[in-house]
Amino acid sequence: MTLDYLGLGDHTSILDGGLPAWRGEGRPVTTEVRTRAPGKFTPRVNAKLVVNASWVNANLNRPGVMIWMRARQILYR
User: Fold this and answer.
1) Are 19 and 28 in contact (CB under 8 A)?
2) Cβ neighbourhood burial of 12 (10 Å; 0-12, 13-18, 19+)
3) Predicted local confidence at residue 40, as pLDDT
4) Cβ neighbours for 38, distance < 8 A, ≥ 6 positions apart
5) Residue 7's closest CA among 52, 47, 39, 40?
């Protein structure tokens, strides 16, 4: 979701299965490290992808709406 939120969703792909799946399909891998020139990134935020609690409460039972929450676990010491 982060890449979609920043406007990069149409320019990225996520490998389902990770590197083991990639290798299992016989795709190429290398240990070569390439030098890349610094690029420029201009985020184009898609604010529709993040909502507040009021919106969630108003749409919990609305047909066609899927609410997906991903909260990071916070550890306190």
Assistant:
1) no
2) exposed
3) 92
4) none
5) 47
